[in-house]
């Protein structure tokens, strides 16, 4: 008699790379008979895939583990695992502090999850936070040939060599590693065969990808040749790795979407130097000008940290001035939070009330720019890749080329189709429009 499948619940924290990693971990554990479930209460294994970028990441993990204690007590055979960057940073400390945890696996070791699952099945524990010598992508089984949604993430690069003073990524994800172009193309083709029409290439420093001659621009051109792949995006990029070829690709390759996330963090040269960003505000603005010369309609987004140690009011004003000069379509902004083990963590911080005030002023400006970008779409016709039905019957939602959420009133059957939509209204978080045309794809 065939054994009943075991059920796996994965909770994903943080960035898009963790979303991708969670998919691959789910696929890896499929070899051990696990199938995905949406409920921790229904699961035979709960896996928390953590992020360590923001403050209190470890505390959030331990809080979630505390909430799992009653569930574990009621189901003693349930296995609980911690994966991702907090697992890498905390290691054995997680098991010591939370004995209910059965396995801990770092982001460079999750291809070993099947062996770890077997090891803990008899009641033992397993911890693996090594930076593996073997290529985890080679070791992972081929992706299953199941039907997918129209968009997908695809990791092409991991790790970072930049060592920004505030960032833990070099310590939790390791040095920059690029996947070979032929393996990326194979995975991309498999995704397209499964129904994907838009792929976002992922990396901690994705535009430093060097898996073949020509860098990321060459990879974009290679993937653009895949029939059925209609849209390509990439994130997250570093200003210092935006080379001439990649800038030109934004104007030359129609499948590369007019959207670029280009973190700057601050508009003050002294703060940028203290952050070890290795560029100035003027260099960043000159780069923005070159990118817009190549693709005038490109929408730019960014990341900002306010209250970095030593930041003065005048230096914060430099950030506001840079934001005004660029005109972003959206941005992520945060108060500085010290990450243990990073150089900036040893420096005296800015008072929390000052950081809160600065963050409010920055976000007010960024929100105004985002709304202006959305309102500028009203009256225009834009292509939208439809992903899923809306909350209301007869409504569909998707993403524009600029990654705006768009919803329309339309009949069923639009999943994976690209429609021409005339935008009629701009709300706080999405655009509304009328469907005026649809592609011929089935």
Could you describe the 3D structure shown?
It is globular and about 60 Å long. Helix content is 34%, strand content 23%. Helix 9 packs parallel to helix 10 (244-252) and helix 13 packs parallel to helix 14 (352-375). The chain has 442 residues and is α/β, with parallel strands linked by helices. Strand 3, helix 2 and strand 4 (79-84) form a beta-alpha-beta unit. Among the domains are: 6-128, Rossmann fold; 381-438, Beta Barrel (OB fold (Dihydrolipoamide Acetyltransferase, E2P)). The mean pLDDT is 91. The protein has helices at 16-30, 57-74, 85-90, 92-97, 113-120, 136-139, 169-172, 181-193, 215-224, 244-252, 269-274, 281-294, 313-326, 352-375, and strands at 6-12, 34-36, 45-50, 79-84, 103-105, 126-128, 151-155, 157-158, 177-178, 198-202, 231-235, 259-261, 299-306, 330-335, 381-389, 395-400, 405-409, 418-426, 431-438.
Task: Provide a concise account of the structure shown.
Helices cover 34% and strands 23% of the residues. The chain is an alpha/beta fold.
């Amino acid at each position: 008699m065939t054994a009943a499948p075991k059920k796996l619940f994965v909770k994903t924290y943080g960035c898009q790379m963790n979303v991708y990693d969670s998919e691959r971990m789910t696929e890896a554990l499929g070899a051990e008979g696990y199938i995905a479930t949406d409920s921790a209460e229904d699961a035979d294994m709960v896996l928390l895939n953590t992020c360590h970028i923001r403050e209190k990441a470890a505390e959030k993990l331990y809080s979630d583990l505390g909430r799992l204690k009653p569930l574990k007590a009621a189901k003693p055979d349930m296995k609980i695992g911690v994966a991702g960057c907090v697992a890498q940073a905390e290691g054995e400390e997680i098991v010591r502090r939370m004995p209910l945890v059965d396995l801990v696996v770092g982001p460079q070791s999750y291809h070993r999850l099947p062996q770890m699952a077997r090891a803990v099945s008899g009641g033992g524990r397993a911890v693996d936070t090594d930076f593996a010598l073997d290529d985890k992508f080679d070791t992972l089984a081929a992706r299953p040939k199941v039907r997918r949604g129209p968009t997908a993430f695809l990791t092409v690069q991991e790790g970072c060599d930049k060592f920004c003073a505030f960032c833990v990524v070099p310590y939790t994800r390791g040095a920059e590693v690029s996947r070979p172009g032929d393996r990326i193309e194979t995975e991309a083709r498999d995704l397209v065969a499964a129904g994907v029409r838009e792929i976002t290439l992922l990396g901690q420093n994705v535009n430093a990808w060097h898996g073949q001659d020509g860098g990321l621009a060459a990879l974009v051109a290679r993937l653009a040749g895949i029939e059925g792949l209609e849209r390509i995006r990439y994130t997250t990029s570093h200003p210092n790795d935006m080379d001439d070829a990649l800038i030109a690709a934004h104007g030359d390759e129609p499948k590369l979407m007019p959207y670029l996330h280009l973190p700057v963090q601050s508009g003050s040269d002294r703060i940028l130097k203290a952050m070890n960003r290795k560029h100035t505000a003027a260099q960043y603005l000159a780069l923005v000008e070159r990118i817009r010369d190549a693709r005038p309609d490109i929408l730019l987004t960014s990341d900002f940290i306010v209250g970095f140690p030593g930041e003065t009011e005048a230096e914060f004003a430099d950030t506001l001035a840079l934001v005004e000069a660029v005109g972003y379509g959206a941005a992520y902004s945060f108060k500085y939070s010290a990450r243990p083990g990073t150089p900036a963590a040893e420096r005296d911080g800015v008072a929390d009330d000052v950081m809160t005030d600065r963050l409010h002023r920055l976000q007010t400006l960024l929100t105004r720019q985002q709304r202006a970008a959305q309102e500028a779409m009203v009256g225009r016709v834009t292509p939208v890749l439809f992903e899923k039905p809306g909350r209301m019957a007869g409504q569909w939602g998707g993403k524009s080329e600029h990654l705006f959420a768009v919803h329309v009133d339309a009949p069923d059957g639009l999943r994976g189709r690209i429609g021409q939509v005339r935008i009629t209204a701009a709300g706080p978080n999405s655009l509304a429009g009328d469907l005026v045309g649809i592609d011929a794809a089935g």
